[in-house]
Amino acid sequence: MPLTRRTFLQNAAAVGAGAAITHGLPRAAAMTPSPGIPKPVVVSSANGLRAVTRAMELIREGSDALDAVIAGVNIVENDPDDTSVGYGGLPNEEGVVELDAAVMHGPTHRAGAVAALRNIKNPSSVARTVMERTDHVLLVGDGALRFARAHGFKEEDLLTAKARQAWLNWKENLSNRDDWLPPHTPDDKDIGEILDPLLRDAFGAFFRHTGTIHCSGIDAKGNMSCVTTTSGLAFKIPGRVGDSPIIGAGLYVDNAVGSAGSTGRGEINLVNCSSRMVVEAMQRGKSPEQACLDVLQSIMEHTRMRRLRDDTGRPRFEVEFYALNARGEYGGARIYSGGKFSVHDGTEARHVPLAYLYKKG
Ligand code: GLY
Question: May I ask the CATH architecture of the domain 28-162+201-358?
Fold first, then answer.
């Protein structure tokens, strides 16, 4: 039987019995945790310091974790200076910004997602509307845009001058066998030369930005939810969908076990169902950090394509995992050293180092 809004609200109310309902989700009645309920914690990717701060504020006011984490990432989606998410995200190979996002609500085990969505700067909010106002989980492309329009989301051009310049630079330096040329500056340096270092990654290859923001939270009632939102791989083939809107790949929550999500090379998570694997590792008793490391190790064992490894066999890509368990313990890991993630565990928002598989360099 389809889950209607009415039954969804009944489920939510059952989860938060006696609590007021806001935006279809239960608000915690009191901030004092009951015995056995961990204190609220929010984790996010390195670009999520403002997100964890906002999410914790809302959780302290009694919000459900899903309301809180979405409000947190909305800040980054709206920020033109973050070129990996929402407004100002780097575009596809044709210069058009296409966004992916998903949300997952632990208490009801429901999810919503959008992929290859154009012209709407808060895809995470559209994903949440898919969860609440449809019997589907994932809407893509034009259908997702028409759904967002139907719900009153404002359409706007998401390509900022900074993102357009980065796209032009990529296009003009891609090949010497086409007709796109970088402009020359008076001192004979072309813009390509100036921007080139910014566009190269740690491996010296052209930087294919896979920024993204993930945010997982546990609220005052001990309920967990998560969100992942992104503009995806920079300069991708139009229509490319990464891991972020795919439940189990870019994010996953089991309210009794934990919540996890990822940033970095989406294709790796799509073939490994990585976020679900992180949660399953926590279910087997691994700490959040060890669960992330175990999944990275498993990914490496499954990465057989030669072009994805350097001459020493090390990966030529990066992927990060963030995890939070039902006891409020958290951790994160990535392939190479030097990474960090954002945490607010009730004291302050701060960066914490990510564990890693290989020392960089
Ligand atoms: N992890 C983001 C993406 O690959 O699209």
Answer: 4-Layer Sandwich (3.60)
